[in-house]
Design goal:
With 273 residues, the chain is α+β, with helices and mostly antiparallel strands. Helices cover 27% and strands 31% of the residues. Strand 3 and strand 4 form a beta hairpin.
Length: 273
């Protein structure tokens, strides 16, 4: 594997960063994950726009998007895989121990790993922990993923692939690495960004292409929904068949099946929508 680190393509064994990098010591960093198909990344412009928004939200300098694109192209050329996960990580760089950021400048890392096609349906669980919709990191795609690691481990222990969070006021929010859509009364709905959820790229495209509406939903909407599906970079559109062990009959339902079909067609026709 060849990995891009601060302007240089390196072998995996030599692709190192300082143990004092702020991304390691305090989770001071942002990232993006892009799906790649036969060496081509999907929705690059939208992902890099969000990388910049997240960096600004964390107080990091804007990433040099020309360098990011060069790094992505080099990594894709050096690591041919049919289906891949392209990870761009941008951190606060070498800093003093503690929360203060140093003046060495940011660290940029780009790596690619092989991915596999997800099944059309999956199981999810809800978790007792909450997303803080008023927190300083709300809506930012940061490397501070400890809460997600714990919640996803709980999901796996219960035979599920994803854990869903409510927010501090009991409204439906998001998964550890996905957005959630529900069908209620025939309407396709997804929580608004004000719920604290991430502005997912696949979420955005599905809303545009399938006419989904934002709606402030109680967590209990999962119990009442006629259909539920998840969206994310590597899931695309994935139907939910079980929530906390309870069946969602007929998954994928007709609205979900249409969203899956439309997304596949539109994404296949335009790799950078």
């Amino acid at each position: 594997m060849r990995i891009w680190v601060d302007g240089t393509l390196r072998n995996a064994g030599d692709a190192t960063v300082s143990v004092l990098d702020h991304g390691l010591t305090v989770g001071d960093g942002v990232f993006e994950t892009l799906k790649t198909v036969e060496g081509a990344a999907f929705a690059t412009t939208r992902h890099l726009d969000r990388l910049t928004r997240s960096a600004r939200g964390l107080g990091l300098p804007d990433p040099d998007l020309d360098e990011v694109r060069r790094g992505c192209e080099a990594v894709l050329a050096a690591n041919p895989v049919p289906l891949g996960r392209l990870r761009i990580t941008y951190t606060g760089g070498v800093s003093p121990l503690g929360s203060d950021r140093g003046d060495a400048g940011p660290t940029l890392i780009i790596a690619l790993g092989a991915a596999s096609v997800r099944p059309d349906t999956t199981a999810v669980v809800t978790v007792p922990w909450t997303r803080n919709e008023r927190g300083a990191l709300s809506g930012l795609k940061t490397t501070s993923y400890g809460e997600n690691v714990v919640a996803l481990s709980r999901a796996h222990a219960h035979g599920a692939s994803e854990a869903l969070f409510g927010n501090t006021v009991g409204r439906l929010c998001e998964g550890t690495g996905s957005n959630v859509f529900v069908v209620l009364g025939g309407r396709l709905l997804t929580p608004p960004l004000s719920s604290g959820c991430l502005a997912g790229i696949t979420r955005e495209l599905v809303a545009e292409w399938s006419g989904a509406e934002e709606a402030d939903l109680p967590l209990e909407a999962l119990d009442e929904a006629e259909e539920i599906f998840l969206t994310s970079t590597l899931r695309d559109v994935q139907a939910v068949r079980l929530v906390d062990g309870g069946e969602v009959p007929g998954a994928p339902g007709p609205v979900t099946a249409k969203a899956m079909r439309v997304f596949a067609e539109r994404a296949g026709a335009d790799p950078n929508p």
